[in-house]
Every structure is written in C-alpha cells, then in structure tokens.
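quick one before i forget lol
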Amino acid sequence: MTTPADVQNERDPELPGRLLAVERDVLIPLLRGRAEEDFGLPVEACPGWTVRDVLAHCSAALTRVVESRFEPGVFSPESNDRDIAERAGWSNAQVVDELERGMTEAGPVIAKAGGLLDGVALGEWVHAGDVRVAFGEPGAYAGAGLPYALALLAQVTAEKGHLPLHADLDDADEPLRLGDVSGERPPARFIGDGPTLVRLYAGRPVDGAGYELAGVEVEELNIFGD
C-alpha cells in the first residue's frame, strides 16, 4: 500500500468521493448480509447508540450534504439525535438504501464545498469501522478504503491547521505528513500502522496496538472531539 506524503498543501477535491465510493462497495453488501438483530448491537465508540443508530446518523448526514440542508446546530448531538429519531419508523433496509444513495451522491457536492465538508466523508469511513467492530469483523479500520482514508486524514488535518505530525507507517511505502506542514512547529512523530493512526485521530481505542508516539499527547490528536 502506498500513501501520498508530500501533497497535502493542495487539496484533492475528488478524494472524499473516492473514499465514499470505495467504502460503499464494501460496506453495503456487508450490511445487507447481516441478520436483522445485528442492527441492534451496541457500538462501543458511540455510547448509547446501536448499529442502526450509527447507520441512520451516517445516512442522514450524507442526505443533508446532498440536499444542502445545514440549519443552525446541524451535526450537533441534538441534531444527530433528531435525525435518528426521524428514521425510527424505517426498516433497516430503508436506512441502508438511504446510506447507499448518500455514499453515491455526496462526493460531487463535497468536492465543490472547498474543503468545508471533507471531514464528513472521513467521519463516515470511521463510523463504518465502528460498525465492523460491533459486528466482530476483522480489519475494522483497514481494508480497501485505508489508503484513501489516510490521504484524506492528511488533507483534513492540513485544512484544519492541526498540529504537525510525521507518520512512518508500517503498511505504506512513504511517510505521511499530517497537519500544518508550514514548518513553523517541529512535527510530532508516529511509528506504527495505518489503522492505529486512524484510531488515534478519531479518538477510538487502540486495543493495545504497538506504536510509538513522540512530541504530542494522544488526546491532542483527536479531530472529532470537542
């Protein structure tokens, strides 16, 4: 697996859509092959939410993107809960259908948003990993989407001006530069694999994975926290 290391200064507007499309082609068949009761499994990364709740949140978020519905407070915990509640009467299949449509149609909209919505695509991919954890599937935050997710993580952290970090990845041919690449601050260092890096930036447990982190505390990496 190769990962771009030195191209984060220039945004790739098509990258979020590519990540969503790759993930769609893997996740949707997995969901359609699960038993109905599996949608009621708890999701560790989202306390109080089931698999169905996470999927309803994801499908609603993408539908909002496609329809450009961004009222005040959108994507807040209260807004997310309302989106889930609005789908309470839907079948699991209907939620999955909406998710598939969103993962198909949101890419071009995100591309035109100038970077403001890039994090939505990354969050969708992370939530897909959360669902795999709930299902007990191997490689929850790995698979075909990982190279795109890592590239998008670099892009999003650069857009946010997040703290700089130089990642030497076990599963990539080239190092990955994340965050502010201006050189004004010495970068932190990470040595480990790609899924662990994603987990750290997403605030997910690393399950005892072997890695090295220097120049930054784990809590500082989380890009989805408050």
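fyi The first strand starts at residue 165 and ends at 169.
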